[in-house]
């Protein structure tokens, strides 16, 4: 049976920054993989 889409996104694990390992404070399904401190432009 197919899982509800909303439940799928709610159950995604927290993302962590690829540079420092800190948990990223944003939506888990976004494309960014660095935290704000490491993502300096």
Automatic annotation (TrEMBL):
Domain of life assignment: Bacteria
Protein name according to UniProt: Protein YhfH
Species of origin: Sporosarcina contaminans
Gene (name only): yhfH
């Amino acid at each position: 049976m197919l899982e509800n889409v909303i439940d799928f996104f709610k159950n995604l694990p927290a993302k962590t920054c690829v540079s420092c390992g800190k948990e990223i404070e944003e939506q888990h399904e976004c494309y960014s993989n660095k935290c704000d401190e490491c993502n300096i432009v």
